[in-house]
Amino acid sequence: MKKLLICVSALALLGTPAISYAQSTNADADAGAVVGGTAGGATGAVVGGLIFGPIGAVIGGFTGATIGASAGVEASSVEYVRLNPTTPVVIDGDIDVGYVVPAEIELHAIEGDATYGYFYTNDRVYFVNLSDRTVVYSPGIVVAATN
Fold it and tell me: Minimal CB count within 10 Å: which of 44, 72, 90, 135?
């Protein structure tokens, strides 16, 4: 019974970002992609973590983010970043969508995507618009913390 309840809850949580995203208009596509990606990543990480533990949280976060951001950062770009981690940089303070990345931070190119670059910091990956160096998206925790 407990497993059934968890599965039903997981399906409901995974469907919520899709319903929210479906109601956006073309003018809201970019904002909806970021919101959908963030919500999808968070939902996927929580559900994956509940069912499969820490590894499930990472996989669920990436999967949910990919689904949630279908109109923004391409799934192929998310997959490329997942398969090509870089050395994390140190940035003090909070980083959120709209944060302008300082010039001294190296942005890494995404093969096949001339619009976005990425960097890792604080156990997360951040997607950055290369034209103005602003953070546009982060699918969630993707780098294992070291003790």
Answer: 90
Alpha carbon distance 97, 128 (integer Å): 9
- Tens of pLDDT, residue by residue over 44-68, are 555 555 666 666 666 666 665 555 4
Whether 53 is covered by a domain: the verdict is: yes
Please report where in the chains the tokens 């109601």 appear, as a residue. 23
Containing domain of residue 23, as a range? 2-137
Q: What's the CA gap between 40 and 86, in Å, rounded?
A: 23
Q: Is residue 147 domain-resident?
A: no
* Phi, then psi, of 131 in degrees rounded to 5: -70, -30
Cα–Cα dist 125/142, whole Å: 7
Instruction: With respect to residue 145, please indicate whether it lies within any of the assigned structural domains.
Output: no
Q: Number of folded domains in the chain?
A: 1
**Is 144 among the domain residues?**
no
Report mean pLDDT in 10-residue bins for the chain, 147 residues.
55 47 40 50 57 64 55 83 91 90 95 94 91 90 52
